[in-house]
Structure formats: structure tokens, C-alpha cells
Amino acid sequence: LVLVVDFGAQYAQLIARRVREARVYSEIVPHTMPIAEMVARGPKAIILSGGPSSVYAEGAPAIDPAIFEAGTPLFGMCYGFQLMAQGLGGTVSATGAREYGRTRVHVGLPGTLLAEMPAEHNVWMSHGDSVTAAPDGFEVLASTEVTPVAAFENVERGYAGVQWHPEVLHSEHGQKVLEHFLWDIAGCRQTWTIGNIAEEQIARIAAQIGPDGRAICGLSGGVDSAVAAAIVQKAIGDRLTCVYVDHGLMRKGETEQIERDFVAATGAKLVIVDAEKQFLDALAGTSEPEAKRKIIGREFIRAFEGAELKVLQDAPEGAGVGFLVQGTLYPDIVESGHGAGTSTIKSHHNVGGLPEDLEFELVEPLRELFKDEVRAVGAQLGLPNVIVQRQPFPGPGLGIRIIGEVTRERLDLLREADAIAREEMTLAGLDGDIWQMPVVLLADVRSVGVQGDGRTYGHPVVLRPVTSEDAMTADWARLPYEVLEKISTRITNEVRDINRVTVDITSKPPGTIEWE
Ligand code: XMP
């Protein structure tokens, strides 16, 4: 275990991921955690992350000097580097010179940390103050034009640090720096491999649920719930029941895919709730986006709870469904305040004859994992690519891709158009190049066209191909004209009632990815 101390900047998660890429398990802890508590967890090393640009800045978080007494190897980056320098008796000066972004670093003495790295290379910096003198016992390894001490190490104590951000992609050899520290200076073993992750999670979940417990898992068709279910299935076998609510808003073939591929890969018990009529009845007459989302959310809970009851009734006498599986990821846990332990949620049932409130204990097999690890574990457990490499798809499904009222006929139109677009993207080998490509039906718009000898008066669809890292921001994807042409020709020829295909070329912001 390596602890990454979070000083409130955006870097801690990225550092934790990079440590795991070096096959060493890492967790993020807040800088407010007492040192004794960190040490009690027995970390092999502690990493001090970036943070505010100056240790002298007003309100800049400090570090308890007790950390230097603990005997645990330490690595400081950027702000963490300055904290180390300051705390160990070096000098941090407000030189007035700043370095932001790409910076050339000169390696004077490679030492262990920078071994086998070019004497000159580019790294990513973001700092105001500089370390002007290293603490006693430290070797200075690198400098830049304005920073005399840009990297140092004290191998005997297991200490090292760099002024730059080795975790970001723009820092050349960044991962190597981290690996030299973890493997060669701190002596961490490379045990965090995909096979081990899967095994550990399965063992952990088996212990949590126990030999008699039963669990239920809602499948959405997405990666996270599928991998979570696969792990729990391995842990408790057919004491897990998966529930998939078919709200009729899925894309063409998706329900069948879950039914076929997921079950074939995992052998899990799957209950499919056919709730199409329930959802369409509830959505009838509603066009306002937020209202649609609320209705879909509400009906989803109803359908899922109905299924829970049924599973409960079918379970052997006295064997209640005690656990609810959720696909919560590590970033969700970190963002909600480093929560530890399990929480209990309540599920309210309003159906006669059964207890008012059933308590479920949450099972979160992915709560220690990042998204890329989830995909790798899914593949390891035998889930097919169509599931583990699936592009994001919103919970409310096609319901928020029909602009206007949602009806069965409109859904069928959109499903056909969307299936063509997806097929052509896959054929062109473009799936890996884009984040996702919603196809949106402008159901209340009609335009005049001509087909054969006749006038048409049909609906337009909008293709919304985007590139993105995390969906927070996005750019429109520059798809090749030939692919756009093929999609346009096929949709207008093959889907009756759609006579125009347009492409959305708005970035996010100002547009969102979805239209509603
Ligand atoms: P927007 O439209 O906000 O979408 O730019 C950002 C990302 O989130 C997806 N999305 C959703 N996912 N439930 C989900 O699970 C939702 O209600 C939802 N709305 C949007 C969207 O597909 C994109 O990837």
C-alpha cells in the first residue's frame, strides 16, 4: 500500500492511478489525516502530491513534522517537494520566477531516481517558489533555468522528490521517475496486477456477504454494473440475482445482448423486467427534458423494487435478499469525502403484505478501482468487448434523444437510425477514436424532401460525435466525410420518415453532449 496525500489539487487521483500502473496498490488520503493514522495503515511509502503553488501562500496546508520521524519512505511532487525541502531543513525561496507548463529540465546527476534518463528533457511544471538549497544528506539531481534544485534524493532514508509533475502525460519519463522511486528507492513489490485485483475483490466480497447471504444487482447495460455483477457472481454464485429493467428506451439489440452475452460470460441468474409499457404510459404527453428525466427515474425505481420483491418471494424460506450490489467506482468514493466502511440504504416498498422498509447492505466490488481497472478486470473475468469497451450511454436512454414526446413509433425510428450509425462507425474502425456519438431525433420538426419522384415530409436526425477525456468537456469529432456520407445515405434510404441527416459541430461547453 502506498498512500497519496491529497493537498486539495486535482492531481491526487492521477498520481494514485500512475502508482497502480506501476503495479503497486495506492489509496488517497486527505492531508488533514493525522500522521499516526497514516502510519498505522502500514504504507510502504507516502507520496505528497501537488497543491497550491507556494508553501508561503495564505492558508497553504502544512504537514506535521512527525511524518519525517515515521521512517516511511517519502516522495514529494511539486508542492509536496517544497514541503519536504522545508520540513527537512532545506530552503524554499520566493524567487519571483515562475514556471508553468512545459519546462526543460537538466539532469546533473541521475542518481537512482533519474537513472537512465536523458540529460535534457521536458517536464510539466506549475510553481511560483523554488527550492534553492536541498536539506542535509540529500543529493541534488536536476535543475532548470530558474530552479537550482528541481529534484533530490536521499536513498538511505528512502526519500526523494521532484519539482515537476511526473504524473501528467506531458512530463517525459514521468512514469519512470515514479517507478524508480517505488521500486528502487521505497522497495515496493509489484503485486497489483489485474489477476490479483480480480481475486482480491472476489475474496473480499465473499467475506462480506458470508456463506448464506443473498444479493441482488441492477444491470444497466453499462460497464460498471456488468463487471460488479461478474465479481459478485464469482464470489457467491447463484445466490446473486441480476435484475435488468427493460424500459423500452434501449438501443437496438441491447437487451438481447445483455440476455445473451452477459449470461453466457458469467453464468449469472438474470431476471429481465419488461417495463416498456409502464415507461411509455408514464411518459405519454411529456416533452420537457427535466420532466422526462424525473419520470424515467421514478419508474425505474418502481420497476426495480417490484423485481426485488419477486426475487425475495422466490428465495428459499428465511433466506432474505440482504445485499444490494452497486457499481460505485473509486473516484466516486474519493469525491464524496474519502468515505470508509459500508453504508446501509433503505428500499421502500408500498406493496401490500410485505414489510414497509427492507434494509439492504451495499456491496461495492469496484469501490477501490479506477475505470480502466474495471475494464481490465471485466476482460479478465471473461466479459466480451461489446460490454467492457462499451461507450457511455445515459441511464434515461433514448428517452432523452427524442426531442419532443417519447412514443413507441419514434423510438423505433431512432433505434433504426442509431443502429445504422453505430454499424458504420464500427465498420470504419472509428469506435476507439470517439467518446460517443448520440443520434438525436428531432421528432417535432419536419422538413420537405424529395425521394424517387415523390415529395417527402419527414424528420431530421442529428449525429453528435464527440471526443472527450471525461465528459466534463468535449469537442466535436472531425469524422471523415466518406463515413458521414455513408451514414447519411443509409439512414435516409433505409429509415422511412427520416429524410435529413445533420451533424452537430458544437463543443462542450457551450453545448452538452446529449441534447436533453
Ligand atoms: P452531458 O449531456 O451532460 O453528458 O454533456 C455527459 C455524459 O453523461 C452521459 N449522461 C448520462 N449518464 N445518466 C447517465 O448515466 C444520465 O442521466 C445521463 N445524462 C447524460 C452522457 O451520455 C455523456 O456521456
TrEMBL record:
Q: Which residues bind ATP?
A: S220, G221, G222, V223, D224, S225, A226
Q: Which reaction equation describes what this protein catalyses?
A: XMP + L-glutamine + ATP + H2O = GMP + L-glutamate + AMP + diphosphate + 2 H(+)
CC per GO annotation: cytosol
Pfam families per the UniProt record, alphabetical? GATase, GMP_synt_C, NAD_synthase
Going by the record, the broad EC class of this enzyme is: ligase
> Which terms are listed as keywords in the entry?
ATP-binding, Glutamine amidotransferase, GMP biosynthesis, Ligase, Nucleotide-binding, Purine biosynthesis
Q: What is its EC number?
A: 6.3.5.2
Q: Does the keyword Nucleotide-binding apply?
A: yes
Q: In which pathway does it act?
A: Purine metabolism; GMP biosynthesis; GMP from XMP (L-Gln route): step 1/1
Q: Does the keyword Transcription regulation apply?
A: no
Q: Which CDD domains match?
A: GATase1_GMP_Synthase, GMP_synthase_C
Residue intervals of the GMPS ATP-PPase domain = 192-390
Q: Where is the active site?
A: C78, H165, E167
GO MF assignments = ATP binding; GMP synthase activity
| SUPFAM superfamilies from the UniProt entry | Adenine nucleotide alpha hydrolases-like, Class I glutamine amidotransferase-like, GMP synthetase C-terminal dimerisation domain
PANTHER family, per this entry?
A: GMP SYNTHASE [GLUTAMINE-HYDROLYZING] (PTHR11922:SF2), GMP SYNTHASE-RELATED (PTHR11922)
Binding partners and assembly: Homodimer.
Q: What the protein does?
A: Catalyzes the synthesis of GMP from XMP.
* Database matches in HAMAP family: GMP_synthase
Protein's UniProt name: GMP synthase [glutamine-hydrolyzing]
